Amino acid sequence: MDNLTHTAAGLFLSRAALNRLTPQASAILMLAANAPDIDVVSAVGGPVSYLHFHRHLTYLLVAMPVMAILCVLLVRAVSRKPVRWLGAFAGAFIGVASHLALDYTNGYGIRLLLPFSQTFYRLEWTNVIDLWIWAVFLLALAAPFLARLVGSEISSSSRRALYPSRGWPVFALVFITLYIGARSVLHARVIGELQSRIYQDATPLGTAAVPGAANPLRWRGIVETRDFYALVDVDLAGTFDPSRARIVHKAEIDPAIEAAKRTETFQVFLRFSEFPQWSVSPNEERENAKLVSVTDMRFMSFSANALQDASARVLRTWLEIGGIRPR
What we know:
alpha+beta; 3 domains; four-stranded antiparallel beta sheet; 8 strands
């Protein structure tokens, strides 16, 4: 999930109940709910470093208590105000857990079991940015302030001014729980539709349903067969027609692809990619040179690339994330 969602989730967890655990609970919860994303500093090392370390060390199950105590220590040091250590640690731990749980519902995935497994665990139920979650969280944030403007009895109550109503935070947390649960049901329906059809006389070997940011009923389906990928939009409110799928044929076996797979750039990318699509094409930078690329069919703007000479010797590799090519 995006950091606005994580921050609001931490705040709502505090206001709903966890602010009873310790002073400075809101600051601790909001910090802890974002703490695993500190791995963004890996981007300093370039795209390959970022893809390798993003959702890596800070997402480990064994790292959760470490991340939690660091958040408590930071808030204590900056605020210079006392905390209840056990309650603060418990709240921070829940905040870190909320981050991992929300990111687990995305298609990007998280690696919980490093160093024992490089597997990305993912559910693909929600988009990284979900406009429905944003809208409800914004309502839950704004409603108490609007209520104070129109209710003099609220503004005159110093206790309520100090401790905002728990009703809206509880509503926001209940909503996101039920909403994600509903999206899991919709995701299962889409996968069922994709797996139950034939695509140009080929049966599916693997399927994925990529959620959108706005309409929970519309998904982008990816179907892998032996020879091609079928890309098709699925609208659960309409009729599913597999014949409208866009067919993307897989690349033939090529020594250039095998050479690219042996490089660090491609190995990092292939650990992340679930549906890799290869291409080999001529390149104008050198005579008889080839450009080898692999794209993840779930994230079309993610690709690994290699420039090779006529003998398939790799001259240069680079990774593009979000369509941005490093210089």
